[in-house]
From TrEMBL:
It comes from Vicia faba (Broad bean). It is found in: Endomembrane system; Membrane. Gene3D superfamilies: Vaccinia Virus protein VP39. It comes from the Eukaryota. This is Methyltransferase. It is a single-pass type II membrane protein. Pfam families: Methyltransf_29. Its EC number is 2.1.1.-. InterPro entries: Put_SAM_MeTrfase, SAM-dependent_MTases_sf.
Length: 569
């Protein structure tokens, strides 16, 4: 472009500006978790910085760089546009239907892993930005007609032109989720005053409940299994609402004990009293002492609703009594109830558990039961009694939000509105998320299932996260995150996980136009850049705030490309 006098005008590089802004974000984030509440005993934070510098100085990998030959990864076939490796419907026939185990994580062996780039659907566009995305998304980004036809009468969503619109309805709230949550808020005053901060929605539909709660200061993980038609989790993430693929079946959910302030089931079809009540034991484990379990749908309000449930009033009365007895035996008490919503509260302390007979059902878990073990850990028919030493982790004793975060970071003025769904792939205490708390985005904090389990600290700070092993695919659909932050990930995991598979997984879950911030030992930096080029990313390297040669920042952006007919794998 030229000025009217013919001289060239230097146009700003928008992508470069965004990358520079993101670089500031990560540096500010790092400055938070080097200080704040995680200072050394003498309170000046020097111990932490010294430990990091010592670690860098002693790195055995600092003498050179990892060399990888250039490679161009081919496109996967178009039938892989919604590929979820560890929850792949093509593999379901290998697993049983008992307790829906086929819907759990079943990752392919290494010789079956795909070495190709997952393509977007034909006509894919950059997602509509928050907050508009809560109410609409591009049809071509999630082109599922089945759910539109089956659920339009319940006002889950409706197709209008080239968009899906989300009116906010649901099976138990056809008049809108706002009215439904208003009633729930009257039943649980803690939603209003900041006492309730983290929640989980089991069987989330299109996550309208979690989306509504965002405006009320409650951060929700919406949970639903992979399915052939509904794509509930993909719709949630396309809308910019936190969600993860998962099902309560035979394995624990990937969350530590005492994580959530509130759990919710709106006609989620989970048989709570079957199999000895094992599914409720898992809710009890992940719910914080004093936390709330909210149920709407059968058998709540059976006196008025039983005719519409294809059952008898006697059967529904029996189901409700069984549920109430089971909850009472686990030290839940009925907290409040109105219309179709019933709320139970988990015991805020151990006084109720101490009064339970030794020989009782359900039994208390013994000392060999690790309550925070949550990665491929089988469910057991016992319930966890909270440890007395963690009394202050109960909801009654937690600070209200936002004081609960402990340290309020300086507001970051450079966060771009294009960033909504963020993942910290190798977090310790949620410091990156804490540094971004004042910005219109949310962070999924991922703690390694093979490292120290710091996930309880993340939840105690009022943040959300999950355990994961990066040798496997993450429980989400393709193209669901705007920004990935990976600090020391390859240093920590390269001895177990092949680097190219980790980066291909990053590419799978990253949205076109999305960014990656990789903070790594220089040993890995060139290899990252080489693999990234093969995935059609645009990258550049930056020095860290320490300006040392042993550690680098690699900032990358994933380009939007349209699939060709050559994709075949």
């Amino acid at each position: 472009m030229k000025h009217k006098d013919g001289k060239p005008i230097n146009q700003p590089n928008k992508n470069r500006s965004l990358s520079a802004a993101i670089t500031v974000i990560v540096l500010c984030g790092l400055s938070f978790y080097l200080g704040g509440i995680f200072k050394s005993a003498d309170g000046d934070g020097v111990g932490v910085i010294s430990a990091i510098q010592k670690s860098l100085d002693s790195s055995s990998q600092s003498s050179g760089t990892l060399q990888i030959k250039p490679v161009n990864f081919p496109e996967c076939g178009n039938d892989y546009q919604d590929y979820t490796p560890c929850t792949d419907p093509k593999r379901w026939r290998k697993y049983g239907t008992y307790r829906l185990t086929l819907l759990e994580r079943h990752c392919p062996p290494i010789f079956e892993r795909k070495e190709c780039l997952v393509p977007p659907p034909a006509g894919y566009k950059p997602p509509i930005r928050w907050p508009k995305s809560r109410d609409q998304c591009w049809y071509r980004n999630v082109p599922y007609d089945w759910i539109n036809k089956q659920k339009s009468n319940q006002h889950w969503l409706k197709k209008e032109g080239d968009k899906f619109l989300f009116p906010g309805g649901g099976t138990m709230f056809p008049n809108g989720v706002g009215e439904y949550v208003d009633l729930m808020q009257d039943l649980i005053p803690g939603i209003k005053d900041g006492s309730v901060r983290t929640a989980i929605d089991t069987g989330c539909g299109v996550a309208s409940w979690g989306g509504d709660l965002l405006d009320r200061g409650v951060l929700t993980i919406s949970l639903a299994p992979r399915d052939n038609h509904e794509a509930q989790v993909q719709f949630a993430l396309e809308r910019g609402i936190p969600a993860i693929l998962g099902v309560i079946s035979t394995q624990r959910l990937p969350f530590s004990s005492n994580s959530f302030d509130m759990a919710h089931c709106s006609r989620c079809l989970i048989p709570w009293t079957e199999f000895g009540g094992i599914y409720l034991f898992e809710i009890h484990r992940i719910l914080r002492p004093g936390g709330f379990w909210v149920l709407s749908g059968p058998p709540v309000n059976y006196e008025r609703r039983w005719r519409g449930w294809n059952t008898t009033v006697e059967e529904q009365r029996s189901d409700y009594e069984k549920l109430q007895d089971l909850l009472t035996s686990m030290c839940f008490k009925l907290y409040n109830k109105k219309d179709d919503i019933a709320v139970w509260q988990k015991a805020p302390d151990n006084s109720c558990y101490d009064k339970l007979p030794r020989e009782t059902y359900p039994p208390k878990c013994d000392d060999s039961f690790e309550p925070d073990s949550a990665w491929y850990t089988p469910l057991r028919t016992c319930f966890v009694v909270p440890e007395d030493k963690y009394k202050n982790a109960g909801l009654t004793y937690m600070s209200k939000w936002p004081q609960r975060l402990n340290v309020v970071p300086e507001r970051l003025s450079v966060v771009q509105e294009k960033i909504r769904n963020v993942m910290d792939m190798n977090t310790a205490y949620g410091g990156f998320a804490a540094a971004l708390i004042n910005d219109p985005l949310w962070v999924m904090n991922v703690v390694s299932s093979y490292g120290p389990n710091t996930l309880p600290i993340v939840f105690d700070r009022g943040l959300i996260g999950t355990l994961h092993d990066w040798c496997e695919a993450f429980s989400t659909y393709p193209r669901t995150y705007d920004l990935l932050h990976a600090e020391g990930l390859f240093t920590a995991e390269s001895h177990r996980c092949e680097m190219k598979y980790m980066m291909l997984e990053m590419d799978r879950i990253l949205r076109p136009g999305g960014h990656v911030i990789i903070r790594e030992a220089s040993y890995f930096a060139d290899a990252v850049a080489t693999l990234a080029k093969g995935m059609r990313w645009i990258c550049h390297k930056e020095n860290t705030e320490y300006d040392v040669e042993k550690e680098k920042l690699v900032i990358c952006q994933k380009k939007l490309w349209q699939p060709s007919n050559s994709g075949s794998r």
